[in-house]
């Protein structure tokens, strides 16, 4: 199957800092592509290029096989690329339905008044289609849980015709139950035929939903593997950085990890 979105030898420098070097990867329709990497690996830089925030300095980004260069996030959105940022996904003080239609409000009549009734009806229908239960759509988004917020943002991207959805560490700040909720919607986005880019530090979350795994390290791709050729153990080991862990264990040898330090006696 041809890729919806592909990067070929993409590089990005910020002055002397090479945030990305020679990065190639493909995002296919109906698949979850997980991008993993430690702090500073280049994950956010990759998202910024694909979502039109920053231009790349080298290589090529292609959409449906044709090279593209997005001048702004609006360009990327118009091409069907939706980005769900961890904190900026939604406007916290606005209601759920307002957020759902933010920037795409429905208007009707000669005066082009907001068509509130239709927006509420569609928002309710779309959320329930995805199995998202939010009893009161007038509630401000700030009162939803982090997981629910991510799910509303995913449902919105699907409704407005995204073909590729990028989720930037959607489970990073969430507990086990909430993460499960978000991972379920990652799968729903995949099943709706989108190409999903799932950015995470967590190999366990990635392996639960991923078809394809890319690990970045210091701006380079160090692993690019399909699920068939990768076990969770190997993915976790690659992420843990086997050598670095061995070095750390060497350094910490003799610290007596089980030691309990008694409180200092008053003098
Ligand atoms: N605007 C910028 N100017 C200069 N250097 C930058 C800029 N943005 C990122 N970098 C550098 O590029 C490298 C990759 O950063 P990036 O934020 O993409 O990493 P990341 O994988 O998202 O890390 P994290 O897990 O901490 O979010 C880092 O060395 C970072 O310091
Ligand atoms: Mg980042």
UniProtKB/TrEMBL annotation:
UniProt keyword annotation of ATP-binding present: yes
CDD domains tied to this protein: ABC_Carb_Monos_I (cd03216)
Keyword Cell membrane among record annotations: no
InterPro entries for the chain: AAA+_ATPase, ABC_carbohydrate_import_ATPase, ABC_transporter-like_ATP-bd, ABC_transporter-like_CS, P-loop_NTPase
UniProt keyword terms in alphabetical order: ATP-binding, Nucleotide-binding
Coiled-coil regions listed: none
MF terms in GO: ATP binding
Domain named ABC transporter: residues: 5-243
Name of the protein: ABC transporter ATP-binding protein
Organism for this UniProt entry: Asanoa iriomotensis
Lineage of the organism: Bacteria, Bacillati, Actinomycetota, Actinomycetes, Micromonosporales
């Amino acid at each position: 199957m041809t890729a919806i979105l592909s990067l070929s030898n993409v590089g990005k420098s910020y002055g002397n800092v090479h945030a990305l070097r020679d990065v190639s990867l493909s995002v296919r329709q109906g698949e979850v592509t997980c991008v993993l990497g430690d702090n500073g690996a280049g994950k956010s830089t990759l998202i910024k290029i694909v979502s039109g925030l920053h231009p790349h300095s080298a290589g090529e980004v292609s959409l449906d096989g044709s090279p593209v260069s997005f001048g702004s996030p609006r360009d990327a959105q118009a091409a069907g690329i939706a980005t769900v940022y961890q904190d900026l996904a939604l406007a916290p003080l606005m209601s759920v339905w307002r957020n759902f239609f933010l920037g795409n409000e429905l208007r009707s009549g000669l005066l082009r008044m907001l068509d509130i009734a239709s927006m509420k009806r569609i928002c309710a229908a779309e959320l329930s289609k995805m199995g998202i239960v939010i009893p009161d759509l007038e509630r401000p988004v700030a009162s939803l849980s982090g997981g629910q917020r991510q799910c509303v943002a995913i449902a919105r991207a699907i409704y407005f015709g995204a073909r590729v959805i990028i989720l930037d560490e959607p489970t990073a700040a969430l507990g086990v139950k909430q993460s499960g909720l978000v991972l379920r919607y990652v799968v729903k986005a995949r099943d709706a035929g989108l190409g999903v880019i799932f950015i995470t530090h967590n190999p366990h979350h990635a392996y639960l939903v991923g078809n394809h795994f890319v690990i970045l390290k210091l701006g380079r791709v160090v692993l690019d593997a399909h699920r068939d050729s990768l076990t969770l153990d190997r993915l976790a080991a690659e992420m843990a950085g086997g050598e670095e862990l061995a070095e750390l264990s060497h350094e910490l040898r003799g610290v007596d990890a089980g030691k309990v330090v008694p409180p200092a006696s008053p003098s």
